[in-house]
Fold each of these.
Amino acid sequence: MTAQPTDPAIYVDRLSRIRVAMEEQQIDTLLLSVGHDLPYLSGYPAMPLERLTMLVVPRDGDATMVIPALEAPRVTEQAGVFGLLPWGETEDPTAIVAKLSAGSKRIAVGDQMWARFLVELLPHMRGVEFTRAVDVVGPLRMAKDHAEIAALTAAGAAVDKIAGELQRGEIELIGRTEAQVSAELSRRILLEGHEKVNFAIVAAGENAASPHHHAGSRVIEPNEIVLCDFGGTMAGYCSDTTRCVFTGEVTPDVAEAYAVLHEAQRAGVTAGTVGTTCEDVDRATRKVIDDAGFGDYFIHRTGHGIGMEEHEDPYIVEGNTLPLEAGHAFSVEPGIYVPGKWGMRLEDIVVATPDGPLILNSSDRSLVSVA
Amino acid sequence: MTAQPTDPAIYVDRLSRIRVAMEEQQIDTLLLSVGHDLPYLSGYPAMPLERLTMLVVPRDGDATMVIPALEAPRVTEQAGVFGLLPWGETEDPTAIVAKLSAGSKRIAVGDQMWARFLVELLPHMRGVEFTRAVDVVGPLRMAKDHAEIAALTAAGAAVDKIAGELQRGEIELIGRTEAQVSAELSRRILLEGHEKVNFAIVAAGENAASPHHHAGSRVIEPNEIVLCDFGGTMAGYCSDTTRCVFTGEVTPDVAEAYAVLHEAQRAGVTAGTVGTTCEDVDRATRKVIDDAGFGDYFIHRTGHGIGMEEHEDPYIVEGNTLPLEAGHAFSVEPGIYVPGKWGMRLEDIVVATPDGPLILNSSDRSLVSVA
C-alpha cells in the first residue's frame, strides 16, 4: 500500500546514520515494531496484530527482523539492512528478542510498539534503561529528502482538490449530517489516490468549537460555519488540511474573527524559516490572536510535524526550542473556538527550506460562502 | 462510529467485575489507553494519536479518564464509571497518570497502549511490576453477552453476503489484480454497513500459499485458486471469513486437498463446545489434516477469538488449555499451503453456547468454481 523506496541503498544509508545517533546517545539496541520507524528503516510495515514483528538493531552488528513465520513471505531479506528470523506458532517471540538484545544496558523502543510486548520484555531485562526510539530515529525522519517532499506535495494537492470542491459547493452540506459529509470526504480522499483515510472531521456551528469533534448526527443548517479537517496517507505520506466554509452570508462577528485567524496563520507560515525555533512559530500565530483579544479561544498548539505519520516531530508548541531545519515539514493550524457559538481553524502544511517556507497547500484560504 | 451501549449501568457492572479480578490478582491500578479494553469499560475509544488518553482504574476508589483538553468534549463524564481530567497542551500527562497511580505495586496496562507512554511512565514507577491488562479484562471480554453476539452475527451476515457475491461470480476475478479485487472487497465491506475495513486478503494461485499474503499486482488467471479472507468492524464488532473460489474447473489435486480442509474445518467447529479446551479444538482440525498426510502444510494455529478486536482471546492453539465457556467467540480456520503451488483456508466464526457451537457464517463452504 505504500510506495516505500525499493532501493536497499536508502535503508543502508538510513541505518548507518541511525547507528551514529545510537553511538552518540549510548543506545545499545533499537527495537522497532508497529509504527513508522520500521518501514522508514526497512521498507516493511508490521501487521498491527498480536503476533510480534520486531526489528532488532544492535549498535554494532547486523539487524534482525523477528517475524511471524506466516508473515515472512511478505518481506524479503535485505543484505546490509536486515536478516529475517521467522518464529513459529508455538514459539515465544519475546524470548527471541530478549536473546538478540542480551547484554544491552540502554534500549530504545518505537513509540507505537504495543505496550504488551514491552511488558513481556521487562522481566527478561532487569536493570535495562528504556528510552524512546524517536530520540534516535526522529531527527532523521524529520528532515525530509526530495522524494519525501514530493510525496507530501502530491498528497497535499489531492486534498486541496477536495477543499476546492467543498468551496465550490460541489459537496452538499445543508440538510446533511456531519457524519454524512465526513463519509463523503472520506470517499473523495480515497478517490484522489490516498490508500488510507486518516480522519475527516466535520463540525458544524457550535460543534466547531471542539477542535477534535467527532462528526455525528448533527444536521448542517443554513447560516453557520462548517469546519472540515481531513487527510489521508498517499504512497506512504500524509496529507492534512483544514478549511472552513459558511452556509450563508458570513456574519460580522465570524468575519472579524476569521480575518484575525487568517492573519495569524499567515504569520505562522511566514515564521517557518530554517533556524526559527518551533516555539517561535507557535508564538507568531498566537501573538496575532492574542493581540486581537481572542487569546483565550486558541486552546491548542499551532501545529505538528507530518510525514509517514499524521502527527510526528517537530511539534509547533511553546517549550519546543528545536530550531527548524531544511526539510522539516509541519502544519500551521491556529484556531479560534468560542464555546457554544462557533469555532474555526485554518491549516496548511509547510516545509522549511533554504529558500524560505514552502507551502504544500494552495486552496482558497478565505472563509468561502457556500450558500 | 461504534454502537457502544449508552446505558452507564453496563459499564458500572463491567468495572465492578474488573475490580474483583484486580483484587484476585493483586493488581493495584489498571491503565487503559488506545485499544479495545478502554471502550469496553467506558464506551470511549481513545484517538490513536500522540496526545495521551488514559483511563486510570484504581482497585478501590473512582476511575479517572486523563484526556487531552481538546478531546474532552468528545466524552461525557459518567457517574460511577469515571471522572474526566483534561490536560492542557503544555502539561505532562505522564506525570498526571503517575500521580494518580502513586503507591501502586502491580500495575496492569492495556495491550495496545503505545509503548512510548510506558517508557515515559517507567522512571516515575521504579520497582513497580507491570502486567498485561488482558489478564483482568480478557476473561470478561471473552464471554460475550447477547448484545455482543447479536453484533457479531450481524457483522458475519454482512461478509457472508459478499462471500455469496464472490461465489456467484459477481465480483470479477480473471484479468484483475489481487489488489483490485481487494479494493473491491473493501468497498463492499463498507457498503454492507461496516464502519471500518480490517483486511481484505486476496491471494491467487501460488500466492495463496502465504497465509498473510499482501494483495499485490499479480493478475488473476483462469484455472487457479483465489483465497479471499476479509472482515471489518460493524457497530464496534468484527467480522472475519475466508472462502476460496476456483477460476475454472477444480483440478483433482486441489479438490482432494479441499475435501480434507472442509472436513477438518467441520471437525473444529463441532469440537467448539463449552468445556472443550482451546488446544483440543486446534487438535480436532489438525488431526484430520495430519491423517490425510497434509500436516506439514498446515502452518498456523486453528483460530483466534473475535469481538471488538479482530484477534483477541481465546486463541485456538496448541498449549492453550483454557476451556471454552458460553459466549466465547472464535474463528475456526484451518489451511493447507503447498509452497509454490497453491494454498487454501476455510474460516467461520463460532460461538460456544450451552446448546453447542453456534456458527455465525453461512455462505457456501465448498470450493465454488467461478469460471
Amino acid sequence: MPDTTLDPTLDPARRSWVPGAATPGADFPLQNLPFGVFRRARTHEAPRVGVAIGDAILDVTACAALGVLDDDGDALDAARACDAPALNPLMARGPAARRALRRALSVLLGDELPAGRQALVAQALVPQAEAELFLPAQVGDYTDFYASVHHATNVGSMFRPDQPLLPNYKWVPIGYHGRASSVVVSGTPVLRPSGQRKGPDEPAPTVGPSRSLDYELELGCFVGQGNPLGTPIPLAEAEAHGFGVVLLNDWSARDLQAWEYQPLGPFLAKSFATTVSPWVVTLEALAPFRAPLAPRAPGDPAPLPYLDTPDDRARGGLALTLQVTLRTAAMRAAGLPPFVVSTGSALDLYWSFAQMVAHHASNGCNLRPGDLLGSGTVSGPVPESRGCLLERTWRGAKPLALPGGEVRRFLEDGDEVVFTAWAERPGAVRIGLGRCAGVVVPRDAAG
Amino acid sequence: MPDTTLDPTLDPARRSWVPGAATPGADFPLQNLPFGVFRRARTHEAPRVGVAIGDAILDVTACAALGVLDDDGDALDAARACDAPALNPLMARGPAARRALRRALSVLLGDELPAGRQALVAQALVPQAEAELFLPAQVGDYTDFYASVHHATNVGSMFRPDQPLLPNYKWVPIGYHGRASSVVVSGTPVLRPSGQRKGPDEPAPTVGPSRSLDYELELGCFVGQGNPLGTPIPLAEAEAHGFGVVLLNDWSARDLQAWEYQPLGPFLAKSFATTVSPWVVTLEALAPFRAPLAPRAPGDPAPLPYLDTPDDRARGGLALTLQVTLRTAAMRAAGLPPFVVSTGSALDLYWSFAQMVAHHASNGCNLRPGDLLGSGTVSGPVPESRGCLLERTWRGAKPLALPGGEVRRFLEDGDEVVFTAWAERPGAVRIGLGRCAGVVVPRDAAG
C-alpha cells in the first residue's frame, strides 16, 4: 500500500494538462488514473488498455510506441501487457508492475511535463466521447458477497421476520458464486428476464417476464495476481491480490429469486445480466480514502483470527459515497433529470474486501487475475441509503414517488438505472468511479 | 442426433485395429471415440486434442499433418480446431463439425482400413500409459444442478425432516453456480480444506481442517456451441448445444457447508476442488443408450411446457451405470482391492441434461463452449445406489465397514475415491467413461 504522503501520484497540488482533468468534481483527475479497455468507436481497431484522464483516454500501447516510456524499464514492461483486449495480463503482473506504470503515466500527464513533450503524449489521447468501452477484464469467476449487514437484515426481516439475520452472518463473510458469462459493461441494455414465478397463494408456478425486476448497488473488486490452488491468502497479503474497484449492478428478478433460491441460492434470478462500470479505480488511487468500516454493534463477535489484522481494522474500508439514480422513459420524454433514489457509503459494509479475499481463499480456492468479487448490495442504516428497490420500497409497500407523477415498486421497461460513486476528503483530490448504467428493455424489443 | 441404425460409427459389427480397443469390457472401443487433451508425459510438448481408442490416444493434429484426413474437408477443418490445449475451439464449432471428425476418425481406426494405411495412422498413436492428460476444456462457468430427486429427498430429510423436498423441486431444475477455477482433471490430489465449522451445541465456530469431507458422484456435461446473451435455448434445440459427458466429483466439506450455506448456498464447502474425468464421451457415442428417465411419481406435476417435448420424454436420459469405489491407504498397503461403495444409474435423475440446458438459458443466460453442467449427486432409490457418503452412511449413523476392518463415516486422509461409468445393452457395443479419481491429502502434506 503506497504511503499517501509520499506517493507523488497522489500529491493534491499536482494537475494534469489534459482538458477536463482539473475541473472541480471531475471523476478522473491526475490522481485517479483508472484502467479500462477501449477503442475508437465505429472502427475495427483492436480493443486495448487505456487510462481515463479528464475527458480523454490515454492509450498505453500508443505511449509505448511513441517512446515516451523508454526511460522507465519497469513501466515499459507493464505497458507491454496493455496491448490486450482485457486487463488480465496487466492484472497478472501484480501490484509492483501496476504501480510502476501508474507512476510513469502520472509524470506524462502532469502539467510539469514540458510543452513539447505534452504535444507528443497528446498523440496518444483519444476523447472519451469518441471511444467505445469494453468489459475491463475477462472474468474467470464472479463471486458475489453479502457484506452489508443492513441489507442482510432488511431482506431477512422481509422473508424471515423471526430471524432476520442468520447465526452465521457475523462470523462468515457470506458469499456465493455468480455467473461470469453474463457480466457486461455499463451501457449494455438489460433484457427483462422470463422465468418461473409463483405467488404464495398460487397453486402452481407460471412462466413469463419478471414482475419484480430490481437493481442491486454494489462495489466490485477485480483480482490482480492470483494464488495457486491449495494455497490460502493470509489477510495481511490480501490487498496485494487486489487490482481495483468498479461499480456493479447485480440485476435481480425478485419473483424468480423467491421461487427458485431454496436450498442452493440465487440462480436464474441473477444470471441474465450483471453490469460493471468500465474504469477500474486502483487501490493506489484509493489510498487517501481508506478508513475503518463502521464499528460492529456492541455484542457482535470479533472477526476470527484469519479475518482480523490491525491494519484491516484501521483502514479496511473505502470511504466511497455511492449513489443510485433512476430515470424512466416518461421522465426522459418530459426532459426531467434523473431522480436520486439512494445515497450510501461503502464504509457501512460489515466486511472489507481484504476479508472477503482471505475468506475466499481460506479453503485453498484459487483466485485468478480478472476474477470479480461483488460486495453485495451496499445499504446503510437509513431508508435513503438502501441499495435496491426491494429494500427501498420495502417490497413494494412504500412505492417511490417520482418527479412527473409516476411511482415505482420495481423497475419498468424503459427505466434507466445509473450508479455513481466518489471519494473526497480535505487534503486529497476528489476522484470518481465513473458510471454504471443500464436501461431495462422488454423481451419482445430484443433483436 | 444421429440415427443409431444408420450411423456407421455405431455399427456394432465394426472393430478397431488398435490394441485394446476390441477387448471385451474396454471403455474405449471404436464406437466410443471420446475427446480429451494430452501430451507425452515428461515432455514439454504443447497439450493438444486426442481421441481415446483402446489403450492408445489418436493425436488428431498429427493425423491432419500426416495427410490422412485430406479427402474429407469437413473433418480436416474440424481437426484444425484440435491443435489447441483445450477442447473449446472444437466445441465452439458445433455438432456438425464434431460428427464429421468423428466419422473420419472412425474410418481411420476401423479394421477395414488397408494395412498400409493403418501403419501410417499408427504414427499418430500415443500409448495412454505414456500420456499426461489435462482438463479437457477451459471452463468458463461451472453450474451444478441438483437433478436427483432421491439425493434431494435424502439430504432434505436429514436437515428438514418435516419438509424433505422443497415445494419448487418438481417444477424447477434446481441449480447453482459452482467455482470454475478449481475444476481439476482426474488424478489431481485433493487437499483437505480448512474452514469455519460449528456444531449445533458449540457456542462459536472454530477454524480447522474439515472433519466431514465427502465426495459427490455426478455426471458432467460440457457445453458445445453457445447461445448469445438474451437468447433462450428451446428444449428441442438443447442437445445441439451439448458436446459430451464426463464423470464429475463435486468434493464437499459437509461441516463447512452446514455452517455457511444459508441463505445463499454452498461456497467454500465446494470450491476447493471439483474433479472431472479426462475423456469427454460425445452425445453421438451415447446415442444407443438414450432412454426415458425413471417415471415421475404419481401425482407429480408434468414439466412446464418449456421443459417438455415428446423427444425428451422418450429419450432424455442416459442409460449409464455409475459406480463409486473407495480404497484407503491401509487397504493399498495390505494389497486389498478397491471397495465398491455404490452403484447407480443416470436414469434415476429427475431432470435430463436437455432440460437443464433449456432451463439455464430460459432467462437469456448465455452458455459458452466449455461451460460445465454437473447433474448433482446421482442417487437411486436404494441405499446401495446413494452417490455420496452423507447419504450412504446417513450422516455417519451407518458407517461403512471396509475390507480390512476399517470403517468410514466420511473421507480420511489417504483415501482414494474412483468413479467409473459404462453403458451396455444388447445390440450395441459397451462403452465406458474412463475414470474420475482423486486421493485426499492432508493440508500439511501439501507442498
Amino acid sequence: MSATEKTADQARVEVPLGARSYDILIGPGLIGRAGSKIAARLPGVRAAIVTDEHVAAHYLAPLQDSLKDAGIQSISIVLPAGEKTKRFDQVIRVSEEILDAHLERGDAVVALGGGVIGDLTGFVAGIVRRGMRFVQIPTSLLAQVDSSVGGKTGINTAHGKNLVGVFYQPALVLADTGVLDTLSEREFRAGYAEMVKYGLIDQPEFFSWLEDHWRDVFAGGGARVRAIAQSCQAKADVVAADEHEGGHRALLNLGHTFGHALEAATDYDGNRLVHGEGVAIGTVLAHQFSARLNLASPDDAHRVAAHFQSVGLPTKMADIEGELPPPDILMNHIAQDKKVKRGKLTFILTRGIGQSFMADDVPSSEVLSFLKEKHPQ
Amino acid sequence: MSATEKTADQARVEVPLGARSYDILIGPGLIGRAGSKIAARLPGVRAAIVTDEHVAAHYLAPLQDSLKDAGIQSISIVLPAGEKTKRFDQVIRVSEEILDAHLERGDAVVALGGGVIGDLTGFVAGIVRRGMRFVQIPTSLLAQVDSSVGGKTGINTAHGKNLVGVFYQPALVLADTGVLDTLSEREFRAGYAEMVKYGLIDQPEFFSWLEDHWRDVFAGGGARVRAIAQSCQAKADVVAADEHEGGHRALLNLGHTFGHALEAATDYDGNRLVHGEGVAIGTVLAHQFSARLNLASPDDAHRVAAHFQSVGLPTKMADIEGELPPPDILMNHIAQDKKVKRGKLTFILTRGIGQSFMADDVPSSEVLSFLKEKHPQ
C-alpha cells in the first residue's frame, strides 16, 4: 500500500511500470476536474472522447466542459451501448474519426464509460499511429476496480470474447466515485464481487474489513474510496509483477473459471447473470472445490458464501434463474476456457481466506464430479 | 558489429531488446531450413503461414515441406499481392482464419513475403490473443534490410499509409538471400538504396565498401550476405537505442522526407517511382540541401549521386518519368509528412558522408527555395 495516498475523500494509486508508470486518481467529482488533471500530466494535448449513448447522456457534457476550461480541444465519439460495440467495425469507425480530426500520436484518446468502452477505446488508442496517449475514466464499479487497471484491451470476434487486442497502459485513470451513485444496486454489487476477490487472493485483512464495512462501501464516501483504492492497488501489485500474464497474474482469475463457464452456459444473458455475479458464484465454488480437495477448510467456503449473501449476491448455481445445461456441458465450457493437457487443468485454488494459488495439475475428472455434486438439477 | 557472426555464406545478427531479443539469420537456402530453425527456437509450436499469391507460387510449398519435416503443423493463408492488402478487411480475415484453426497465444504466425505481407502479418500477430509468436521470412531485399528489423507493423487507412499498427518484435527473422535471385533488377536496386542509406547515416566505411563491392552484392554470394547483415546490424543498433521512435530512430528517415513527397507526388504509382527509388533521389537531395545550408561539402552530394548512378538508380527529380507537380505542391506533401511548427521543420541533414543528424529548426522557406531550384520544370 506504500504508493497509495489518501486525503479525506480522494486517493491516488501509482501503477509502477517503469517508464510507463501511471496514476489512478480515485474520488468524487473527478469528471469535473478531468481537464486540469489531464492538462497537468499531458500538457498541450488535444483529445478524442469515446463513450456510449447511456454514459454520454449523463457525463459527456460535464467532461467536455472540463476539458474546454483547461484549454484542451476535443472531439466526441458516441457509440451504441452494449457488448456488441466491442467489435472490429467499431474499431475501424473510431480509428477513422480520430484520423479525420487530425489527432497526432501525442494526443489523447479518452475512454468515458464501463468495461466495453474501456476495452475498445484502449485497443484503438494502442493501434492508431502505433499508440496514442490513453486516459481512462471508468464509470462502473467493475471498470474502476478491474478493467481500468492492468493494460488489457480488446474486442470480441465470432470465436469468443477478447480474442483480439493489445496490452496497452493508460497515461492516467480517473475513477470518479460520484458516478457510482447512478448505478443500479445490481451493477454495484457485481463490481463489489471483484473487490472481495482481491481480499480472497492474498489480502485476508481486506476481506475482513469488507465484512465489517461493506454497508459503508455501498453507501459511498470515504469507505468506498478506500475500498476502490485498495482494490486498484491489489491489482496494480499483481500487474507490476507480471505485466504480460506469464504466471502470477493468473491469480486474478480466482473464481473466473467457474464464473466464465456459467456466463457461457447462460449465453451471456445479462438478465440471468452478469459477470460479477458469475464471479461471486465461481469464487464460492473455487473455495468449495478447494475444500473438497482437502486443501482448505469448508468453514472458509461458508464464510465467503455468507458474505456474498449478506450483500445480496448469488452464491450457488441454483441462484441463477432458469435451467442450466448439464454438468458435462459446463465442463466443456471450462475445457474451452482453460487448455486441458493430458486430462489436467490449470486452476486457481486456495488454502484458505487470502491464500489462493495456481494449481496446474487439477484432474478434469475431479472438476466434473464436483460439478455433478453442486449442480441443482 | 559485435553481435554479427558469419560463416562462409551465413550470418547472424542479434537484435538486443532484453527479453524480446531475437536473431536475424541471413544466407541462401534458409526457407528450406526454416522448419528446423523455428523448431529449435520455438519448440512445440504450430504455425499459420501468411503470404501473397506471387510469393506463394515460388516459396509456399518449400516452406510448408520444411515445417512439416520439422514436425510443425501449419495452415496457410494466401492473400492478394499488392499494397491494397494492407487494410483492415485483410486484418480481420487473417485474424479469423488463425482463430478458426484454434491456434493459441504460444503458436507462431509466419510472414512469408515482402514489406506488405510483413507489415500486415506483424500487426495481426501483435493483436490476435494480445500477441502471438511472430516469425518473419522477408522475400524482397527491401524487407530484408529494412521492414523486417525494428518491430514496426501496420496497415493503411483512407487517411494514409501505416496509420494503424503496433510495435511488435518478431521471435526470429530468416532472410533467405537465395530468393533475391528471382527479384527484378529494379526491385533489387530499390532495396539497395536503403543499404546505402545505412552507410550514409553513420557508417562511412560501409558506404566506401559498397562503392567498391556493389557489383559483388548484386551478383550474390558472400558479399551480398555481408551487406545485408551489416544493414540489419545498423538498423538493429538504432532500434535498440530507441525502440519506440523517440529521437535517434528518426535518423533512419534520411532521404525519406523528400522521398515520401515524391512518392505522394506520383500517386504511389510504382511504374513511375518505387519506394527505394524515391529514397535514392531523396538521399541525394538531402545531401544537396545540406550543402546549400553550408553544412556539408557539395562534393559529398556528388559522390552519393555518382554511386547511385553507377548502380542504375535515379538521382534527381528529372529522372522520374512524366510531369511532377510544382514545388509548392511538393512542399505541401512534405508539410503533411512532417509537422511544421512556427514555419520550422524537422529534417535529417548531414555534415558529410556518414555524418547525418536530426535538425529540428529547418525553415520551410529554405526547403521551398531549394525545391524550386531543383525542380525540372
Amino acid sequence: MKKVYLDNMATTRVLPEVLQAMLPYFGELYGNPSSLHSWGDEAREAMDEARAKVAALINAAPEEIIFTSTGTESNNLAIKGIAQAYQEKGKHIVISAVEHFSVMHSVKTLEKRGFSSTLVPVDKYAMVDPSDVARAIRKDTILVSVMHSNGEVGTIEPVKEIAAIAKKAGAVFHTDAVASAGNVPVDVKELGVDALSLAANQFYGPKGVAALYVRRGVRLVPLFDGGIQEGGRRAGTDNVPGIVGMGKAAELAKKDMAARANLLQPLRDRLIEGVLKIDHSILTGHPSARLPHHASFCIEFIEGEAMLMLLNLQGVAASSGSACTSRALKASHVLLAKGIPHALAQGSLLFGFGVDRTAGDVDYVLEVLPPVVDRLREMSPLYDKYIKARHGVA
Amino acid sequence: MKKVYLDNMATTRVLPEVLQAMLPYFGELYGNPSSLHSWGDEAREAMDEARAKVAALINAAPEEIIFTSTGTESNNLAIKGIAQAYQEKGKHIVISAVEHFSVMHSVKTLEKRGFSSTLVPVDKYAMVDPSDVARAIRKDTILVSVMHSNGEVGTIEPVKEIAAIAKKAGAVFHTDAVASAGNVPVDVKELGVDALSLAANQFYGPKGVAALYVRRGVRLVPLFDGGIQEGGRRAGTDNVPGIVGMGKAAELAKKDMAARANLLQPLRDRLIEGVLKIDHSILTGHPSARLPHHASFCIEFIEGEAMLMLLNLQGVAASSGSACTSRALKASHVLLAKGIPHALAQGSLLFGFGVDRTAGDVDYVLEVLPPVVDRLREMSPLYDKYIKARHGVA
C-alpha cells in the first residue's frame, strides 16, 4: 500500500542532514555546556553556532533566542513570563479567538491570578482585523498576542499591522509563529514583534526543542527556577543534540524555503481543487493568505475522526485539527470562531505537505478520499435527513 | 594527551545502545503520538514502552510517569504544581538547606505568591536529620521536599524516614532523585514517596528528557497550559526519540546497576584515598552513605575554578559544584550549609565517575592533581599567610 504522510502540521520528519549534525552530540561530544572544561566548551560552541542559525532564520540577534523544549513551552513562557514582568503597568491582555490552546489557556491561568483579557474575533477566513485589535486595547493592556499563522486553517495573519498597533499603545507584542517559522519568511525586525515562538519539529528539525525570540530590552519572568542557563531565562540542562538539530534545520529552512514552497504550493493547490469537487465541501482558512504547505477543509455531514481512520486504512495520514487536542475529539475552537456551524466543524480535515510529497501522492489522496466520504455519508443520519429533505421525503 | 571525563554529575555520555534505540524515531517513525493514524500509533506505542521501562526503574506504574524536558522542569513541576494543587489546605513548605536550586528557587517563587517555607539544616555531611523535618512541619505544611542524594557532595539522604514523617503529618512528599535514579536503587513504593524527579542524562540517556513520578491520587497543577498530552499534566509535543532513549537507558540502568556500582565504587575509593593525601584536603559529604560514583573534596587555600582549568589542560574534566550554576562562580550553598567556611568552600572539587573509567584513569588524576594544587598554592596569598604563620613569620 502507498504510504502518504500529509500531517506535517502535527510534526515533520527529521531530515538526514539534521540527524547527521546531531549525532556527534550524543555519545562523543556529550559535555554539559555549563561545565568549565573542554567537553563543556565543545558543547557550548555547538550551541552558540545553533543559536546563530536559529537567530538568522528570523533575523534576530543570537542573544535574543531562548531555547525551550516545545512550541507550547515557548508560548507559555512568552504569555506568562511577559505578563508577570509587566504587571505593575497593568493586567489586561489581548489575544485573538483562534490562538493555539498554549496561548489561550495560559491567559486563562493568568486570569486566576488577577489578569483580564479580551478575545479579538476573526472573519470567516479566521483572519484578525487589526482595527479590532486597536479597539480591544485598553490603557491597562500590557500584552497583545496574535499568531503569525493558524496551524488548523493555514491563514496568515496581518501581524505587522497588529504589532504596530500594539507598539503605539505601549503594549508588548508576541506572535506564535510555530506553524510559520521555517516554512514562510518570518523577519522579527520587519514584523516589529517583541517576542516570537518557533518549534524545530515544524521545519524538519527534532521534537523536544523549540525557541522563543525575545527582543533585547523586553523583560520576562522565567517559567523554571534553578540554574542560570539561557541567560537566567530558562533553567535546566541544555538539550545540546536537539539544539544543534534545530540549528541545522533552521539553516536548511532559510536556504531552501523558496524552493520548498515552490514545490509544495502547486501540490496543495492540486489537492484543494480536487477535494472541492466533493459535494458539500468547503476550504477553511484564507484562500490566498495561507501557508504554502497547508490545505484544510470541512466535509459536511461526517466526522473528521472517522475520515482519518478510513484514510489511515488507505495509508494516508491527515488530521482534523491541532494534534495537541486531537484525542479530546471536540470541535475546533478555531472553526467555531470563524463562524462554521458546530455540525460542519465536526467534518474538519487538514493536510500538511512535506518535502517528500509528489503529484502522484495528491492524485492518490484524490482517488481514495471521495469513496471514504461516500461511505461515511451513507452511514450519516445528518446526510440521510438532508437527502430526504431535498427530495421532499418527510 | 589522556582524556579523562570525570564530570558525570554534570551529564553522562549517551550509550551506543541508547542512541541505536532512538535513531528510528527521527527520520523514519517520526509521527506525533497524539495523531490519529498509524504514524501516530507507532510513536505512541514506542512512548508507552519507554514509559513502562522508566516506571520499572523506580517500581512505579506507567501512568504515574510524566515525561518532562529536564530534571529542573520536573522539580519545578513538582514543587509549584503540588503546592498550587493543595494550597487550600495550607501554604507552608518544608525543604532541606541543600536542595538543588530548581527546588530552592521554586519555593522562593511560591513565597512571592503567599507561601512560606522552612529550611531544614543539615549536619557536617550534608545529611538531613529526619527529626528536624518533623520539628519543621506545621499544621499548614502541605509539601515536604528533601532530595534523595546530593549531586554536589554525594550524600544519600534518609528519604524513607522523612517520607514517613511527612505522610503521618498529611503533607505530600517529593524527592529530587535526579542524581540517584539510574545509579542507585530507587523504589518509590519502598521509599513511600508521593513524587520523585529523575533525569535521563544522569544515567547514560539523552539530554532534553526527564520525568516526574507522581503517585496515583496525588494532585498537580500543570506548569504548561495547552494540549492534553501526558494526561493533561504536561502540554506540548512529546519528545519521542528522547523518551525512547530514556526508556532504553532506564532498562540498561536497572539491569546493570549493581555491576556499574561494583566497577565504580573501588575507583572512587582509590581516588578518595589518593586525594586525601594532599595536605589540607577534606572529603565533602558522607564517607559511606554516598553515591557509588561520586567523590567530592575541598582543597584548602585555592579556588575550584582554577583547579578545573589546570586539570582541563591535563585532559581531566571535573567540576566544582552544580553545573547549573558553575558559571556563576559563587561558593556552593550546599557546602556552606554543611558548615564549611566560605574560604574552604571555594576550593571545591567534584568527580563523577562513568562506566568508561579505569584504575589507570584514577592514577593519572592522582599524578596530575598534586602538582596543580602545589602550583596554585604557590600563587595563593591565603596559603602564603598560613605558611608564614606556621613558621612564625609575621
